[in-house]
Amino acid sequence: MTVSVVVVDDQPVVRAGFAALLGAQPDLSVVGEAGDGVEAVEVVGRVRPDVVLMDVRMPRMDGLEATRRILAELAPGEPPRVIMLTTFDLDEYVYDALRAGASGFLLKHSSPDELAAAVRIVAAGDALLAPSITRRLVEDFVKVRPVLPAAAAELTPRETDVLRLVARGQSNREIAAALVLAEQTVKTHVSRILTKLNLRDRAQAVVYAYEAGIVAPGPRR
Predict the structure, then answer these.
(1) End-to-end CA, the chain
(2) Among 64, 52, 81, 72, residue whose Cα is nearest residue 202
(3) pLDDT band at 129 (very low <50, low <70, confident <90, very high)
(4) Could you tell me the pTM of the whole model?
(5) Distance from C-alpha of 142 to C-alpha of 165, rounded to nearest angstrom
(6) 3-128 falls under which CATH superfamily?
(7) Contact at 8 Å (CB) between 104 and 128?
(8) CB-count exposure of residue 149 (10 Å: 0-12, 13-18, 19+)
(9) How far, in Å, CA of 16 to CA of 8, rounded?
(10) Helix, strand, or coil (residue 22)
(11) What's the topology of domain 148-211?
(12) What digits encode the pLDDT tens for the residues 160-196?
């Protein structure tokens, strides 16, 4: 199955480079390009890709607002998965992008293999969460945001344990080892957590866990 991709970046050379790298993959197809957020909304709405590579900082409309509009305008159908592209590992826009529904983020200097793998990961329904970078980003920016009242009363104690480890950036395999569970059981718990909390994917689960106080910013504990 071929994964369709739209590449959005205001620098033509960068945009062309990403498109060429992805287009060289047998299972990936670049179906559109855009130079700013306004064009991105139009192109994505027209070609309906599986994944959008979205630059954060662009003229006319930045990647954050474009992501919000794309996900809002294409819902309640199957909106694309959005990967935010950023130059810096701590970018204030990325946190807001995760809250807006982006499925993760990727540094622009990532290798071609990492770029292709990122598209495949989010196309498969997973979140693109580099644990060390994501943890630093979320913990830094959640400190200056009010903690929302916990709305996780429907979660079982075991589901809460799983969510806590998801928020720490652990994979299903790592969670299974830590809680002495089968990996398939962890997958089931994650699916139920997303359903109960009305979250789209693991990226939103991470943000929710911090905002609801299930995980506190700071050193791992």
Answers:
(1) 41
(2) 81
(3) low
(4) 0.70
(5) 17
(6) Response regulator (3.40.50.2300)
(7) yes
(8) exposed
(9) 10
(10) helix
(11) Arc Repressor Mutant, subunit A (1.10.10)
(12) 999 989 888 788 889 999 999 999 999 999 999 988 8
